[in-house]
């Protein structure tokens, strides 16, 4: 195979796949390898790929190189001679089947795979590039190449050697640039955060120094304070000592002045006591006389009460007599009224007959009421029994309706549109002419839920949710309703019912095979549904078997000739081939039931509904009878009340006269008793006056005695008053003396207390002075005999001189120092450390930014050297590709597809084609175009690369398989025209067929591949001899 520099025809020898020995001598231009399928055309392609260090995966036929050796052989050899100036290169590959290894030779000398790859790369041979080497099994993959992959393949195939290298460098540079940008961004953020953090540290450091100044000032204030305290206490000690001496002199003078006053107070005290004894004696005498006066006054009051009681008793006698007279008058009046009524009353008539008549009617009425009450009780009991039975039936129907509701919920969850249509149907049933059945999954009721799987596996899911109509017109109206857009299924039952269709044979004949029923007998359904299922699914003629049927299935199929069979867990479908008349069967496992597991016994439900209707009729009849009885009962109650009122009036008319006579007699007895109880008021008044007179005499005697006692009490009170005046005078004098003495004593005690306090204070201050002086020396770290240093005296002069000012200043400084919390010497260390890190990071960031700028500059340079040639190259490809398509009355374009100019790994080549004038340009994809269109597009793209190609050869294997004859002819002509030019590289075109009357070129080389048991061995074939023999035979035919 000649390289791009040109050369002579080369030899390719191989012993792989279908060949024992084969030599291929291709021409320098177009080499068309023709042969029937299976003769070994692709074996030549495989040999070229494997001989030029290609991997098995490039071919797509096997994953191990040993599998390319002809079956039965242990070793295969591929030898390829490549044209190169000044000397050709012969590459040999020996393939060992046993260990799947290869041995490599260059010019018959052993070498390594790496050396071979370097030699091949130097000649720009790329067997892994679909733009250069397109084996048969990789033709479809070319259309699957992404735009990015197609660009890389094109660059490798026809671009300058540095183009793909520049592209790779750009991708690497861009990746590195992206990494550096992210790194710089992260480091910049980190640097900014560190600067912010060190700014905070800077403030902390300043605060730390500020706090140190405050602490130093606090320390100096705390040193001065003990000296100020000592000086203050020393001055206080001197003042207290002087005050103590003055208090001692005053105390001595007060003690000398207090002695005469004490003696005079004692004399006054004795005289006051004698007067007090006399006053108490007079008070005792006055108290005794006053007690006697009190007794006399109490006796007088008692006499007044006795007189009042006598008057009260007399008044009560008078009131009692007046009440008796009034009662007598009222009794006379009542007797007179009753006598008048008795005189006016008629002679009592005989009322007994009327009373007997009323009693007889009451008796009959009570008997009739008893009969009615008995009837009502019987009917009520019967009604209660019927209502209990109705409740039982209603509960059972509720259970059955719950099962139906479960089935509806299942329908709603799986097929929401079908459920919506069901709701609409129930509201609009009056719009249909004939019966409409709800979805089959609701209408079908299994007799045994275990058999539901057979019915569900036999009936399609679409029909399970389909509505069944008896009228085609009703079904069309249901499906064409314009106010809803629901996806529902509907079917129409056959015009002639098939529900009662009979099976071809009775089920009893199939019992010996394990069949126990036909599908139709396993469930109940409305007549239209059953008719449809018999017509469409022949449920009346599909038997259901058991495990016994499964075990003898071959015999069942042969003997019964059944077309569909169900066993315990499988479904069998039997067919007879129309060509071979052989019986074919397929079996599938049964799916679990989903729709029909909950079934309702329709016979039971129908029977319960009939019973419920009968009970309702019975209850209506009982209610009517009870209503009649209740009305009759009310009428009898009214008549009973009327009769009882008549009887009461008759009885009252007979008893009135006897009652009046009895009342008059009782009142006469009461009148006699009242007349006997009369009271003599004059006698009672005289007796009361005698008693009052006697009591008044006793009162006069008591008054005389009381006046004598009062006179004695007055004289004693006068004597007592004189003694009290004398006592008061003495007490005042005594109090005056005591007050003076007390004031002097208080002054004396105060003087003593003041002296003691001042003496104690002097002693305490002396001790305090010693302690404070000692403390002040300790604070300043001075010895007992050492004076205050001059530097301390100088510092103390700048500070406040009083304790209040020092304490205020100290508190202020402490408060300021306390504001600087959380600070220590480590803050300064951290600040210095962070400052150094920021400097290092700044230098590192500057270095990376410079590196990033260099990468951007490199990218700009490499991009210019890569992109401009690439655009020109793609423009050339597009021009040739478009011309090829134009010659076929089609349109094709090739352009550079760019999503983002900076994303160099996203650049790609986009192929767009249009094969029909009525369509738009579409991108070539594995899915949009047909197989022939993809083949034509692939072939024309490769042809567009042909003249630009710098690879030494190109291989295309059976790319014309999917083309129609017209496109195949056009493509062939383009291939011949392009590949036979002087400037093009060697071209291998493999095809199993050729159209008639194709255009050929003298520079073409046609290689016919034949293979078979009667073919000559390759080393025995002599083409020249064959041609001579063929010419000789031709001349003989002419003669």
UniProtKB/TrEMBL annotation:
GO molecular function: ATP binding; single-stranded DNA binding
Main location class: nucleus
A biological process from GO: double-strand break repair via homologous recombination
The entry's keywords: ATP-binding, Chromosome, Coiled coil, Nucleotide-binding, Nucleus
Pfam families documented for this protein: SMC_N
One GO cellular component term noted in the UniProt record for this chain: Smc5-Smc6 complex
Locations listed in the record: Chromosome; Nucleus
Domain of life from the UniProt record: Eukaryota
Keyword Coiled coil attributed: yes
Family to which this protein belongs: Belongs to the SMC family. SMC5 subfamily.
Oligomeric and partner information: Forms a heterodimer with smc6. Component of the SMC5-SMC6 complex which consists at least of smc5, smc6, nsmce2, nsmce1 and nsmce4a.
Protein name: Structural maintenance of chromosomes protein 5
Species of the source: Mycteria americana
